[in-house]
Specification:
CATH superfamily: Aldolase class I
CATH architecture: Alpha-Beta Barrel
Low-confidence stretches: none
Helix content: 25-40%
Structural class: alpha/beta
Bound molecules: D-xylitol-5-phosphate, zinc ion
Strand order of the largest sheet: 1-8-7-6-5-4-3-2
Number of helices: 8
Largest sheet: 8 strands, parallel
CATH topology: TIM Barrel
Number of strands: 8
Amino acid sequence: MIIAPSILSADFGNLEKSLRRVKSAEWLHVDVMDGHFVPNISIGPLVVKGVKALTNQVLDTHLMITDPFKYTEAFAKAGSSYITFHIETVDNPVKLIEYIKSFNVKAGISIKPGTPVLEIKELLELVDQVLVMSVEPGFGGQSFLESAITKIKELNRLRSVNNYSYLISVDGGINETTSKLCKDAGADVLVAGSYVFNSENAKQRIDSLK
Ligand code: DX5
Ligand code: ZN
């Protein structure tokens, strides 16, 4: 299982120290919020660039923004390894996937809890990652919505039937209980914010999720 600690729950007054606490994870998840697609505002490309300078971890940038086209170049050049956008925000997802890949960055697509897998079925052969939201995007520390499990199973089924290669990620409310449900359903990546960072021992939390 790949663990992607979400730096949304990090200490932004001492980000370097927070990053050291989660250095045993292969990935870092970076939540970008614009106060428009979601009610919260978080960080921009400058922070991604700063994080990139401090770590060799895979930087998994999750764009919760209304205009992902406009900011893809900046997040790519800042050092993102993956850029994931929300299907709910774009009219031409194929064009955006190609645009993300043109920067040699892997492309991901995300669906909110209310969006069915059917909405992205045609895109599955094109993407490197599908990010299933298991909370309403916008804030850390919410409870896991079990409807995500059905979606993970469906994505896992579609992947094996069609021989697709995307990773299945789950984002929101991950802890020692919900992680098992996700694993059994076929998830590859667990994004975890509060469970990892709101602990004395982040490394032990990462190990337990693994
Ligand atoms: C929510 C973000 C998540 C969030 C997860 O909009 O996409 O990545 O940080 O936080 P927890 O693990 O606390 O639910
Ligand atoms: Zn996220």
